[in-house]
Structure formats: C-alpha cells, structure tokens
Amino acid sequence: MPQKEDESEKEMIPKSFQIFGHEFKVIFQDDLIVEEEAVGTYRHGKHLITIQNNGKGVTILKSRQEQTFFHEITHCILDQMGEEKLYHNEKFVDLFSQCLHQILKTAKY
Length: 109
Ligand SMILES: [Zn+2]
Fold this sequence. Notes:
Blueprint: E1 16-19, E2 22-29, H1 32-36, E3 40-43, E4 48-52, H2 62-81, H3 84-87, H4 90-106
Helix pairs in contact: 2-4
This protein binds zinc ion.
C-alpha cells in the first residue's frame, strides 16, 4: 500500500528558479545568522537567495527555513517587478509570503 503523503515532508525549497527568464539560485550557509544576523538573505546583484543551514552549529526548523525562503522570494519577486515600496514593506512581504507558502504546502492536485 502506498504511504500517505505527509505534507510536512513535501520539498519546498528548490536549488534554483526563474523570474522573467532570469535564473536565481538558492544556497544554504552554515553561519549566515552569524555573518548577517538573519536566517535568510536576497542578493539582488548576485541573483542569489541564501538560507541558514540546519545542523552545523545552528539549529533551525525546516518550517522556519521554508518560511524564510518564501519571504526572500517575495522580496525577489517585488524587486524584479520594480515594486520598490512594497519591497521594503516587511509586513506585506511577511503576510504575502505566508499565504504563498501555505497555498503551495496544502495544494492538492
Ligand atoms: Zn524581509
């Protein structure tokens, strides 16, 4: 009998993705929180999202990594759209990214 799919185990963080035909990479860093005082960053010039790695000295839940990923891609989307005001609106970015995360996490096909 096939095992029931556990939604919490669904892989949500890709290695790369594209927006408007531009490729963006996603990497994990062991000491991001030490270097940047953040668990995620988006680097406009490098087309790069960095997420705090789990395990090597820093413990971070997978759900927190996912939420961070969606937060950073929301910054990335708004940057690519040229929506500078929304890009800097952390409340909007947080709420929008939580909606996006939940939709994709709970989506049934
Ligand atoms: Zn932010």
